[in-house]
Amino acid sequence: MQTQLADFIRNTADGDEAEAILRKCVHCGFCTATCPTYQLLGDELDGPRGRIYLIKQMVEGAPVTRSTQLHLDRCLTCRSCETTCPSGVQYGRLVEIGRQHVEATVPRPLRQQLLRRLLASVLPNSAVFAPALRLGQLVRPFLPRRLRDKIPPRQRLLEWPANGGPLSAKSSAIADAPATMRRMLLLAGCVQPAMLPNINIATARVLHALGIESVIEPEAGCCGAIRLHLGYRAEALDDVRRNIDAWWPHVEAGIDAIVINASGCGATVKEYGHLLRNDPEYAEKARRITELSRDIAEVLSGYEAELAGLARRRGVHTVAFHPPCTLQHGLQIRGIVEHLLTTLGVETRLPVDSHLCCGSAGTYSVTQPGLSYTLRDRKVKNLEALEPQVIVSANVGCIAHLQSGTSMPVGHWIELVEHLIYG
């Protein structure tokens, strides 16, 4: 796709990147077949190819309108189009460049400004989010359904179903582990410790059983994804730099890896090197952080034999797996979780639309509730059709979103692995 950059973006880092990405696009339209919003709305401008044209026009100096903003807002950034694209168009990076320009050009209605500012201020700040969530959980029964769905009930330490039975409380004690321990940093996350604390506990217990000590650095916080996707790029980069500063002493001390159990966070941390590539103080450090980051599935894929030896057959024998977009399209991790669970004796079923987004997409369920709930309901229907005992996923946002649409238990697959080991 030939592009003539306008003066405002020519010879800039974003301009050079946008031009390189645009030149790869050959207008084939394969991407529209796997775009959730195009499937729902049937509008070319609500598919990747149409949005690429919009971004091309804006970087060439065409007027940017509220309509342009709307079509980019509707994008889930699921990156399914990247997996489909035969030309290797890095659409996710391109759409962030486009959104950044739109945010600087088109004023938003006051209501949207307030909502987005609230989300960007509260969600990444665990000191604010945790008490706000607790308050919301107290008044949850009295809230309207749409708001109630955004506030999951308070989570206890849970037992996975035994023969399809109910969930029950359990101990969080850690069993004996090998004497020689490897050390890995574990990103706690911003909303996950308050919303779904079992996930980090289960991750630490599974790693411990394999002789890996998980270290949580208290000065690390939000990965930056929430503010980045809401258009607060400068604040997002501050989040990134803060995490690098917090982790760097551990890196210098020889930490083996940075483990991430929320694929949405993992996809962002994998971009640290790119996000700070032009920062002379942080570029090299960010590149090293990217090299060290591993999704928990990548870590455990090297321990299948050990896990099989530790696992004992429990009541859970059939699960439906929803692979988050950030796992399969962002991190390009496909098949590892399914293979691992199968190795541990659990039949793992994928829905017919496993390549499509569930509609969670970070804050999308709040900013675009209509589209989000339609996608959720479709996904839940296809997951329930598999007749599993439980549904498992790999990202906190997807788990909470799916759980709001079904009475079937939804959890993280690492919690299931932990149950298979410890009972």
CATH hierarchy class name of the domain at 312-422: Alpha Beta
Helicity range of the residues? 40-55%
CATH architecture level-2 label of the domain at 312-422: 3-Layer(aba) Sandwich
Q: What's the overall geometry?
A: globular
Radius of gyration: 21 Å
How would you characterize the overall build of this protein?
This protein has 423 residues and is an alpha/beta fold. Among the domains are: 13-105, Fumarate Reductase Iron-sulfur Protein, Chain B, domain 2 (Orthogonal Bundle); 312-422, Rossmann fold (3-Layer(aba) Sandwich), CATH 3.40.50. 51% of the residues lie in helices and 7% in strands. It has 24 helices and eight strands. The protein has helices at residues 13-24, 36-41, 48-59, 66-73, 80-84, 91-105, 110-122, 126-139, 145-149, 192-195, 198-209, 225-229, 233-252, 263-269, 272-275, 283-292, 296-300, 304-310, 325-330, 336-343, 364-367, 369-384, 396-403, 413-422, and strands spanning 182-186, 212-215, 258-260, 293-295, 318-321, 347-349, 390-393, 410-412. A four-stranded parallel sheet has the order 2-1-3-4. The protein has a four-stranded parallel sheet with strand order 6-5-7-8, with helices on both faces. The model is unreliable at 162-175 (pLDDT under 50).
Question: What features would you highlight for this structure?
Answer:
423 residues, Rossmann fold, four-stranded parallel sheet, 24 helices, 8 strands, globular
Q: Could you write a compact summary of the structure shown?
A:
The protein is an alpha/beta fold and 423 residues long. It contains 24 helices and 8 strands. A 4-stranded parallel β-sheet has the order 2-1-3-4. It has a 4-stranded parallel β-sheet with strand order 6-5-7-8, with helices on both faces.
